[in-house]
Amino acid sequence: MQVNAILGVDISKKKFDVCLLMDNKKRHKVFQNNQDGFAKLVVWCNGHGANLIHLCLEATSWYGEDLATFMHDLGHNVSIVNPAQIKAFGKSELLRNKTDKSDAAMIARFCIANKPALWKPIAPEMRHLRDLYRCLQSLKDDMLQQTNRLENENMHSSCKEAISKVILAIEEQIIVLKTEINEHINHYHI
Questions:
Q1: Which stretches of the chain drop beneath a pLDDT of 50?
Q2: Domain boundaries 5-114, corresponding CATH code
Q3: Which candidate in 37, 52, 77, 178 could, as Cys together with 32 as Cys, close a disulfide (CB 3.0–4.6 Å)?
């Protein structure tokens, strides 16, 4: 089946704006960035006759990964593009106003003009490992921050005691995560 619609997506933590380009028509809508919003997006696209979509969005943090995976699993084409490429494209179009709605439309036009490479989600076991590693790194950062706070010589002893307990709890969770990471690697032979 051939792609019959382009969907530009400007995504954020709580919502995403879309621009559906199909049959020389442009349609906009906003959805919640959750499973319910993804399902409503599919119903909305189907209601406009979009059978096979090429969805294009910027690689911004992790906000778009669930939507990209959801649409990919339904058999749609997905491209996740470097934001610098989208920004350069926008400059070439001499765009003046910047809204989520206009960004979604620009991303859709970028998709048509540049035909970006298709994205494939990483295997679930690799995604789990990546998430474990990110959590571990975050805990290490938190521990460093709390350790640095202890260096304040003027801090009251009760505050130092509380921070020391927080550091101990973080250290325990770091050990738990390292163990889980090693077990995961051994189980999947990664």
A1: none
A2: 3.30.420.40
A3: 37
